[in-house]
Task: structure prediction
Amino acid sequence: MLDRARRRAWGISGRLIAAYILVTIAVVVLVEGLVLGFQVPALVNGAHLQAQVFATARLYAQQLSQRTATVLGDPRQPARPGVASPTSAGTLVVPAVTGPIRSRMAVTAVVAVAADGTVVASSAPSRYPPGRSAASELPAPAAAAMLRYQDARDPLRVKGSATQGSPYTTPYGTVLFSVWPVDRTGTSSEPGGAAFVYVQAPWSPGFINPLHAWSELGQLGESAPLLETVPFALLIAIVPVGVLFSLLASRGIVRRVRRLDQAAVSVADGDYSVALPVSGRDEIGRLEANFATMTRQLGSALSAERARATGDARDQERARIAREFHDAISQHLFALRMIAAGMRRADPANQEAQAIEQISEEAVRDMQALLIELRPASLNGAGLTAAVQEICAAYQDRLGISVDTSVEDLTVPAPVEHALLRITQEACANAVRHGNARQLTVSMARQDGYVELAVRDTGTGFDPAVPQAGSGLIHIRERIAELGGTVDIESAPGRGAALTVRVPVP
Result:
């Protein structure tokens, strides 16, 4: 049990689960890093900048309430759109922009607004010109805050919009702003005096190092512990989710791989009949298809090798029997014929000696025919034509049978060569042994996509409709049927026989 669990842990299933978990954790860490890099500046830097804007508005309101000469903006600071420079006192440096502002970006600016909502003065008169209505120039939440102050007649300190510090998007970009009332006992009571101070600074979250952003989360006060806990909780929760997802995603792959493994074990044990279904078109599916093709080819090759080994063993056994017949029985028959011939010459009237001599001659002739049939004809690399001619020459030279051959030089597939050679040998043996033929005609030629082999004899013949005792013709028909060819037999008692086979060739 422990070994099985260890194999599964280190197997493809365990590795896929580990890979899914690691990838999921990496994605979560990356996403959290991006969130920290983009959102922490929005939280931390936004809080810092809002506090600086608030302090700057209060500082200018105090200066205006003291009825001192106050310049809205520092003329020594160049106008830098999109930049808000902090001071050591926690306020912002507001540059005094006397010329036109060519940039479309928001600038750091301070605006004095009268009680009737008219702009009295500003650090950037080209952007916020005096005499204009504050409602048309300033952000809507700032103008609304001034109007509420006029109605309530209460001290007002507005920090940002009604949503407490949310950035506000103007036609010139996103800003953080603050509205501060000027003390009514000061210059604000004079005609044309400032009743409100409006301060804005451009705001952009940007992106910072996630590690640095993490360290700055502590500056967010009460919300910091929650923001610090959420990423850890998400990482802890993602592990079982990753395990479940990886199990569901890898189950099918693991099952298919295990099926391949079992099929490979069966093939290794010698079972090439494994039927492995193709379960998809992916890499494993192609592997299954190739595996099935391989097992079929291995099975066919093994069957062919076994058949070849069986055929070789059969040929070797036939050759051994032929040697035994030649060395023993043939010699005895030859000696018997010589004795009978001597007895006939000593006594020409001895009919028994004549009969023995005649029977001996016929036995020797049958033995020679049997030896030719037993000795397996072989291609031996010489080709089909040479092998067929060798068979015909053996019958002519050893048995004195007249053989007329007309064999073309052909190149055909190996199975066709082997079949035609064996059929030639079988047909000649049947004609000599069973038909007592003294003359054979063997022809072989290619025509119309076929190879035609014809063996004709002048023997006793037979009736093709009557079942024959031997199995030679049955074997011939089986061989030709395997090759998709046809077999024709023409014969009659006393009129010889003609065997014609046609085999399709490419």
